[in-house]
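Example record

One chain of 142 residues, shown exactly as stored in the release files.
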Amino acid sequence: MRKTEKRSDCPISRTLDIFGDKWTLLIMRDLAFRGFQFYNEFLDSGEGIATNVLSDRLKMLEDKGIIISKKYEKLKTRKQYGLTKIGINTVPIILEMLVWGVNFDDSTIVVPEFYERFLNDKESLLKEVMTSLEEGMHKNFC
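Predicted structure tokens for this chain:
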């Protein structure tokens, strides 16, 4: 598993210890905004993540208490992933990064209605996303 040893007491450094690689942030994006719950969904997200990297990041996020996994009720050999309260608390940051990416590079793709909601009613959008995650609903927002 990727090391997440503490490099310093700086809060930004501590955050980067966990979220400092693209794969971890993309997994968080998929959990929070795309409604992904299963290993194969992350694997098939179009980003090209390797199976060993995906397994490593999911395990690290679970060990850190950011995500949780459980046996899928309909197929006990399958794991279902979701965000914990700590993981849900990253949603505002990831949302800001998503919108920053659109503003930085207008060739990126985002659902126009989602972007418009962010621009016109950010608080309501954020509340809807976080509430759906807290209630265990897995919606695709973008």
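Notes: The mean pLDDT is 89.
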